[in-house]
Amino acid sequence: MGALLWLLIPLFAGIAASVWAWDTGRRNPSPADHDTWQDLDRYQRLRTVLSADEHAKTA
Q1: What is the pTM of this model?
Q2: 48 touches 56 (CB < 8 A)
Q3: Which of the 8 DSSP states describes residue 26?
Q4: CA-CA distance, 29 to 51, in Å (whole number)?
Q5: Are 21 and 29 within 8 A, CB to CB?
Q6: pLDDT tens-place string over residues 7-53
Q7: CA-based radius of gyration for the chain
Q8: CB contact at 8 A, 29 and 23
Q9: Can you tell me whether residue 27 is helix, strand or coil?
Q10: Contact call for residues 22 and 14 (beta carbons, < 8 A)
Q11: Which parts of the chain fold into alpha helices (H)?
Q12: Neighbour tally for 18: CB within 10 Å
């Protein structure tokens, strides 16, 4: 019976974390990413600007 009591610790920790997440408004911890192509285009533009900046410094 004592070993089963140790299982209550993770159970209560999970319940406490759930209550905390619900109380702080984080019902969806990670929002879905729908703009993958837009993020990729932004990343490519950033790489282009940074590489142009490096070429400007060496010239």
Answers
A1: 0.40
A2: no
A3: -
A4: 35
A5: yes
A6: 999 999 999 999 988 888 766 656 666 778 888 899 999 999 888 76
A7: 24
A8: no
A9: coil
A10: no
A11: 2-6, 8-23, 36-58
A12: 10
